[in-house]
Amino acid sequence: MPITAPSSRALAPLLRGLGLTLPLALLAGLVGCSGSGGDGGPTASTGGPTTSQGPGKEPTVEELGGRRDALVIAELSDADSLLYAVSQSASDAALIANLNMDNFEATFDCSLKYEPAFYESWTWDDTHTILKVKLREGVSWSDGKPVTAHDLKFTYDLVADPVVASPRQSMLEKMVPGKAPLVIDDYNVEFHYQKAYNTATMLQHAGLAPSPKHVLESADRASLRGNDFHKNPTTTGPWRIDKWEPDSRIVLVPNEKFSGPKGMTPRLNRIIFKIIPEYATRLVELESGAIDLMTAILPTDAARLKKSNPELSFYRRGWRSSDYIAWNNFDSADYKAQKETAKENLDWSKVKRHPIFGDVATRRALTKAIDIDKLIKDLLTTDDGEVYGRRAVSTVTPALCDTHNNDITLIPLNVAEAKAELEAQGWKDTNNDGVLDRDGKPFRFTLLTNSGNARRNKAAVIVQDNLKAIGVDMQIEQVESNTFFERLRKKDYEAALSGWSASLAPDMNPMWHSGEKYEFNFTGYSNPQVDQLIADALEEPDDAKSNAMLKEAQRLIYEDQPYTFLYWMDEIVAVHSRFKDVRVDILSQYRRMDAWWVPANEVKYPQ
User: Residue 25: its pLDDT value, please?
Assistant: First the structure.
C-alpha cells in the first residue's frame, strides 16, 4: 500500500530527524537551529519590520486596489545562467526561483519541510524506491504553452547529458536510467531509485524544475550556457523579465500569463535589479534611498546604518554562506591540455599535480599561517562586539544539526610551525629576498577572487599579509563575478577565495566526490576513502549511520585541506521598511517576492 505524502504535515516527523538542516545555525553561542537572529527575521535592534501580517496572510491584489510600488535591489554582478540545469551562482538561483514555480514549496526549521507547489501530491511505493508524482494541471509557460511532464523529463535529460556538463549530474546517480523520471502521462511521472536512502535527499533529487522543451529541444547542448534563452527565458512563475540591459539592470514585471495558485499573484508592479559592482557604491545607493534592498552588508556598516537610516529593517539569514580558499590540486595548464584531448571523462590520476598545492603538508602549513580569527574579528564583528561569523571546518553548514561535524580539531594559528613545515618540504629563502624558494623557483602564486565583494577583497589583503610573514609571495587578482565562477569551473586558477551558499540536503557528492562530472569539485580533490563514505552515506537509510559517515568524510577532508575553510557568515540583508511580509531567510535572500507588498500611503514608485 503506497504511503501518501501530499504535504509536509505527513513528512514532518520523518524529516525532522533527517539531519537536513540548512546552512545556518545560530550565531554567538545560540544553541540549535532556530531562534533569535537565525529565523530570517529582523535583528532585535531594529524593532522588526513594520508589518502586521505574517506570510500567507498578505492582502490580495484586489484588496490592495491594484499592484503597488517597485522593489529596487542592488546586485554586484549581472545574471549569467537562468536555466537551472547549468546555473552556478546563488544569485542566479534566487532569480530563477522567482521566475519559476518551485516543484515543492520549502520551509526550514532545522530541517526542510515540503509543501505542494507544481508537484500537487506525491506517494512512495512499499519499497520506498518509486516516487509517484502528480503535477499541477493548468500551469502554463510565459508564452502560453502548457507545462507538462515532458518538460520535467526534458530537464533531467539535459542534466544527464555529459555534453551539457551540468553541475547537478550527481542528483541522478541513484536513479534508474530511463526512469529519471518515467513519464506516465502528461501530468504524472515516476522517479525510480536504485535503492532507498535519505528521504529528504531523495525528494530533493526529484526537485529539478521543468525546462521548456518546446523552446530548447533543438538548442545546441554543448553551448547551452551561452544560449539566448538566458536573456529572455520562458518561465512558469509569477514574474517575467521585461527588460534586460546588460551590466546595468534587469526589470521583472508580473507574468500576465501566470496560471499557478492565485495566492502567488504579485502585489508589486516591478522588481528592478540594478547591477552595481562596487560595494561602496551599493552602500551609498542604500543610504540615499536609491535602492530598497542590499545583501551581504558588512557588520560594521549595518551597525552604523541602524542609527543613520531608521527606515531600514535588517535581516540575519543564518549560517547559509561560507568563504574558503581553494587550493587547485592540479597544474591548470596540464589539466586544460588533457581536458581538450580526453575523449570521455578525464582520468584525474594522469593530470600533473600543482607544484605547490598538490601537496597536503604544504596546504596544512598555509592554513596554520592564516589568522582566521582575525578575519572574523575584522570582517564579521561590530565595534561593540556583536559577532556575525564562526569558523568553518567543512562545506556542511552547522545548521544541519545532526550532520555537521562539531568535533573536528581545528588547525591552530601557528606561524613558527608553518615556517618549519614549509622548510621540511624544501622551501627556504636561499637568496635572502624575503621569499621562500625551492629548486630555484620562488614560493609565489596568484589568489583569484571576484571583484565587488568587499568582504572577500578585504580578506584577501589580510591573507596576503599573513603569508608574507612566512615568506610566501601571494598576488591578488580580481575579476568580474561571472568570469570568476567560469574560471573556477574550468580549474583555471592557482588559488581562489570564494564561497558557497550551502546545500539544503546532506549530499556532499557535488563538491567532494572525485571525477569530471562533479563540476563543483573545483580543486580536483580526490580521496577514495571520502568517495566511498559519501557514496555509502547516500545509500544508507538509517539517519544516524548516514550522518556518522558524513562526519567522518568531513574530518578526512579537513585533514587534507583542499580548502582552507575560513568562516560561516550570518549574512545581513537590509530592506526598506515600507515593504511588508518580507521573506528574507536561510532559503533565499529574496524569497517569494510575489508576497511582498506596500501600503497605499507608503508607495514610492506608483508606476
Answer: 24
